[in-house]
Amino acid sequence: MITVRGLRVLLGGTVIVDGLDLDVADGEWVTIIGPNGAGKSTALRAIGGLLPFHGDISLGGTALDRLPRRERARTVATVAQSPVVPPGMLVFDYVLLGRTPYVPALGRESASDLAAVDEALVALDLVDMRARRLDTLSGGERQRVFLARALAQGARTLLLDEPTSALDIGHQQEVLDLVDRLRGERGLTVLATMHDLSIAGEYADRMVLLDGGRVVAAGTAREVLTQELLAKHYRVRVKVIDGEQGPLVVPVR
Ligand SMILES: Nc1ncnc2c1ncn2[C@@H]1O[C@H](COP(=O)(O)OP(=O)(O)OP(=O)(O)O)[C@@H](O)[C@H]1O
Questions:
Q1: How far apart (Å, rounded) are the C-alpha atoms in residues 247 and 80?
Q2: Which atom of ligand 1 is nearest to the CA of 44?
Q3: What is the mean pLDDT of the chain?
Q4: Is residue 66 very low, low, confident or very high in pLDDT (cuts 50, 70, 90)?
Q5: Nearest CA to ligand 1 atom 10
Q6: pTM of the model
């Protein structure tokens, strides 16, 4: 579903992503991990068509630069780390923005657009907040709204940049379980970045460890979440415990 070859991204004249190769199969969940500044968000933004890049990116077999904007938006939905929210915007109207690729120019949203918004609000437990202004919500509530907009967009591929960073442990699990359930029900493909390594390992089919804009390890959680790799690339001493759902990473003093 996602194929990336030799991706290079420069920001402000500096190489931030340096020759990234990545494959995400249809229906697969791949999570990119790596220390701060490794280039995770930059790679994700390039794959979502939000940044200029060198190299090849294709989505569902079509080169990203050959997908017209509307079609790209129906193919891939990105949830950025801190999306810009128009001041005073209501939850419902923000989620409705996810339907923009389906609304004809100068036309109005259809009943199926409104139904998709309602469905996303229900899925993320936001029905009671539909008329609230986004700027009155807590960080976690806002993060659920961002995800709702991506779901309403109806794309088969979700790019999630730190989707749970503002969520408490209960909502973290709820949101990730929901994404995983939708992945099964709707055949979604997920490419995410995450900092919580144990949780990342629990949900991902495969992980990619990025450091200095390059892939330094890739494989299953057990292959990537090792003491040696984490010590080398995060410069931290950790204990990796074999948990039921995958490796549990615990920093040690
Ligand atoms: N416009 C810019 N000009 C120069 N450097 C930039 C620019 N934007 C981002 N960077 C740098 O690119 C590097 C990678 O940033 P990116 O946000 O992709 O990292 P990340 O792995 O997602 O980090 P984090 O875990 O902190 O979110 C950082 O060192 C950042 O300072």
A1: 27
A2: 18
A3: 92
A4: very high
A5: 11
A6: 0.93
Q: Cα of 42 to ligand 1 centre, how many Å? A: 7
Residues with CB under 6 A from ligand 1: 11-12, 14, 16, 34, 36-42
ipTM of the complex: 0.96
**Ligand 1 atom nearest 42 alpha carbon:** 18
pLDDT in tens, 170-200: 888 888 998 998 899 889 999 999 999 999 9
Q: Given CATH 2.30.22.10, say whether it is the number of domain 2-251.
A: no
